[in-house]
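Note to self: keep these together.
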Amino acid sequence: MEKKRKVIIVTDGDGFAKRAVERAATNIGGRCISSSAGNPTPIRGKDIVDFIKQAKHDPVIVMVDDRGHNRMGKGEKALEYIAKHKDIDILGVVAVASNTHYVNGVKVDFSITSDGKIVQEAVNKFGERTNGKTLFGDTVDVLSQCNIPLIIGMGDIGKMDGKDDCEIGAPIITRAMEEIINRRGGKDETFKKNRRKY
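Structure:
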């Protein structure tokens, strides 16, 4: 029986996000599927799963993006395919806030602010806490249909007034990935072995 691959999904894929996610994946010792980056997601969910299976080790980091589409765009279609695939174990999703209107949003388990603090509320694209648990973004509506075990909210990856810039180590997205691993995969010796000091 094929072992399920352990995956972290990030709902952003533009140039800033790509660089930050790649840096964060290196920080945690993960493998990033860089070809999943794009605005919108340039490849199908099936192709992303194929790349996941070829990755050298877990956790595998995948980016999905709807490019502001308020309905089910390419990113959400890919996300749904990956999340429901029998060979994939989603450890968690980093749900990214945006200014997209007319979306349902998704309830987060908690969020990480632009200052790196864990809060129980959602955040906006600037990484500022909001008054509710629902995070609004262009690639998050489908999450409520996918039985995701852990959803962490955060602001615009690689940005937030420079607080998540890859030049300083992409600390906010790194913290989000670390929290997912600690809470969902912390007992996996492979994860511990591949982590790096940053």
